[in-house]
């Protein structure tokens, strides 16, 4: 008889645990559903179509083209400015060469022409240390000018 009571108690405990787990799972799922309501795909598709109708893609393309042209021109001007200064000094620091290489890559990707290519090739051929001395100096230091030669 004592054995029967232990089986009944064990069965009731298992039943209670099952009901508790089921209740907790149901509560968690309901909570998730309240915080994350189902999305009505038809409404979402309709809203996307409304927004697409409001956007004039030709205007966006024109503005993007104008921005690309402006960036290309600014890159060209910077490359030309640094090229002129480097040619005047006769050298260019490796870090500055690296920056100009990256700028040229963007310029070329935007459709830059052969003038920029010629300038970057000139820059690549320049020495990376000043011909008159201090390898730690930078060309961008305006106070450092090449010595006068007569």
List the helices and strands and how they pair.
Layout: H1 2-35, H2 41-54, H3 57-89, H4 94-109, H5 114-125
Helix pairs in contact: 3-4, 3-5, 4-5
Number of separate helices? 5
Largest pleated sheet: none
The count of domains is 2
Instruction: Tell me the Rg in angstroms.
Output: 36 Å
Shape: elongated
Total strand segments: 0
- Helicity, as a percent range: over 70%
Distance between the termini: 122 Å
Strand content: under 5%
| Overall pLDDT score | 82
Order of helices and strands: HHHHH
Please identify the structural class as seen in this structure: mainly alpha
**Which spans have pLDDT < 50 for at least 5 consecutive residues?**
none
What does this structure look like?
With 150 residues, this protein is mostly helical. The chain folds into 2 domains: 2-38; 47-125. 73% of the residues lie in helices and 0% in strands. It contains 5 helices and no strands. Helix 3 runs parallel beside helix 5. The N and C termini lie far apart (122 Å).
In short, what is this structure?
The chain is mainly α and 150 residues long. It has helices at residues 2-35, 41-54, 57-89, 94-109, 114-125.
List keywords for this structure.
mainly alpha, 150 residues, 2 domains
């Amino acid at each position: 008889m004592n054995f029967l009571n232990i089986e009944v108690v064990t069965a009731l405990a298992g039943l209670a645990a099952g009901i508790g787990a089921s209740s907790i799972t149901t509560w968690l799922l309901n909570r998730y559903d309240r915080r994350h309501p189902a999305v009505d795909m038809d409404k979402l598709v309709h809203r996307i179509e409304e927004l697409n109708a409001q956007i004039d893609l030709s205007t966006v393309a024109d503005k993007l083209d104008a921005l690309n042209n402006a960036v290309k021109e600014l890159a060209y001007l910077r490359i030309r400015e640094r090229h002129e200064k480097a040619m005047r000094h006769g050298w260019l620091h490796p870090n500055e060469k690296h920056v100009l290489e990256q700028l040229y890559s963007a310029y070329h990707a935007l459709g830059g022409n052969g003038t920029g290519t010629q300038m970057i090739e000139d820059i690549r051929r320049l020495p990376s240390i000043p011909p008159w001395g201090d390898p730690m100096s930078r060309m961008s230091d305006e106070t450092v000018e090449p010595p006068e030669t007569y």
